[in-house]
Specification:
The protein has 373 residues and is an alpha+beta fold. It has one domain. It is built from 6 helices and 19 strands. It has helices at 30-48, 64-75, 146-163, 181-198, 293-310, 328-337; strands spanning 4-11, 16-23, 50-59, 85-88, 97-106, 112-116, 119-126, 131-139, 171-178, 212-216, 219-220, 226-235, 241-243, 262-267, 270-278, 318-325, 345-349, 359-366, 370-372. It has a 7-stranded mixed β-sheet, covered by helices on one side. A 6-stranded mixed β-sheet has the order 6-7-8-12-9-10, covered by helices on one side. A 6-stranded mixed β-sheet has the order 13-14-15-18-16-17. A hairpin with a 2-residue loop joins β6 and β7 (119-126). The longest helix has 19 residues, at 30-48.
Length: 373
């Protein structure tokens, strides 16, 4: 099996968290790539008796049906009905399948399904001293406008949080998947900021409780303008730390984006540092190294390292990471640089939130992580 599989684990007496990054061999036929990817993930999960919390599949549109069929065939009972987030780029990639990322948990009783109506949308892990929620592929009405869909997605997530007698103040991390990001990112930011302001997450007299977040030019394969994934700490309440300014960058809210640079949240096996989508941006919010892919890539990596360093973590603690390259040419530059840090890379080609940004990274890190050989 020609799959690059990177598995990181964090163990505690209460649970083990499992982070899988699987990347195919691009020389294999598409159907074989898909089958081998999900077989490798399944075998890893079964060997650890782990249950999926979040799963993301990155590809171009032509690979989606092949991937869905392969996942359904390979997973069997491992598929609990919660869909993976199938995320596609309008940009032609060097390989139709970029990879699969899974965050899973072992050593606890089976995760419980979370639903909107009769539709499974996530899982919740309930433990003696903590409750952790993971939602996937929340979408709006595809017939509505982009901004209406954005509002509906946030409201749907809010309705799930209300099932647990909580609200967006419990949310540690969001992922906003926007297929045509450059055409309406400012409008999306306005909708999100107003939603957060109305709920008391930002604004005068609040504690600026903005989740860490990624907003990137990958849309849901189902065709909506956007979808959202989310992680929240239901219990213990009020324990998530939100770091608006961190590393080498200031608070993104100062230039119109309502997210924290990072958050630190209780998860089943410890505490996770979620690093928001990070790029070659200076302290004032301006793009740096314009038209220089290598410099943007190196600066972005340094910016992420500065964030995790401020959280007393290092390269060895990174458990998941996605590199977003604007073009195949940027990807080629990145391929020559990426081994400078020992991170579990999944590389995707897509638009970033500004036309002059060529590269972005998101990451997650936990103290005590170990790589499974």
């Amino acid at each position: 099996m020609k799959i690059h599989l990177d598995t990181r684990i964090v163990e505690s007496p209460a649970a083990t968290e499992v982070f899988i990054s699987a990347v195919p061999d691009p020389t294999e036929p598409l159907a074989k790539q898909a089958g081998e990817l999900f077989t490798a993930v399944r075998d890893q999960l079964e060997s650890m008796k782990a249950r999926i919390l979040h799963e993301r599949v990155f590809s171009t549109p032509e690979a989606v049906d092949v991937l869905r069929d392969a996942r359904s065939e390979v997973y069997g009972d491992l598929d609990d009905g919660v869909p993976a987030s199938y995320l596609v780029s309008k940009t032609t990639a060097s390989c139709p399948i970029a990879g699969v990322q899974v965050h899973a948990v072992a050593g606890v009783s089976d995760t419980e399904l979370v639903k909107i109506g009769d539709t499974p949308v996530g899982r919740v892990v309930k433990m003696a001293d903590r409750t952790y929620l993971a939602l996937s592929a929340i979408t709006g009405d595809p017939k509505a406008s982009a901004t209406e869909q954005a509002g509906a997605v946030l409201q749907k997530a809010e309705s799930v949080l209300e099932q647990f007698h909580t609200d967006f103040l419990a949310v540690a991390r969001t992922w906003m998947w926007l297929g045509d990001i450059l055409s309406w990112y400012d409008d999306f930011n306005y909708v999100r900021t107003e939603f957060f302001r109305e709920r008391g997450l930002v604004g005068k007299g609040t504690r600026q409780s903005m989740p860490a977040s990624t907003g990137i030019g990958l849309g849901p394969a189902s065709g909506e303008e956007l979808s959202m994934d989310l992680s929240a700490v239901i219990e213990p309440k009020g324990t998530t730390e939100y770091l608006g300014a961190l590393g080498k960058q200031q608070c993104a809210l100062e230039y119109g984006s309502a997210f924290s640079r990072a958050s630190r949240a209780v998860t089943p096996a410890g505490k996770m540092v979620y690093v928001s989508g990070t790029a070659s941006i200076d302290a004032a919010g301006a793009t740096t190294n314009i038209d220089d892919a290598e410099a943007q890539i190196k600066t972005t990596i340094e910016n992420v390292q500065a964030v995790i360093g401020d959280m007393d973590l290092g390269d060895q603690d990174v458990v998941q990471v996605v590199a977003y390259c604007k073009t195949t040419d940027v990807e080629k530059v990145f391929e020559k640089i990426k081994d400078c840090v020992p991170w579990p890379w999944v590389t995707v080609i897509c638009d970033v939130c500004r036309d002059d940004l060529l590269f972005e990274i998101e990451a997650a890190a936990m103290a005590g992580s170990k790589r499974c050989e």
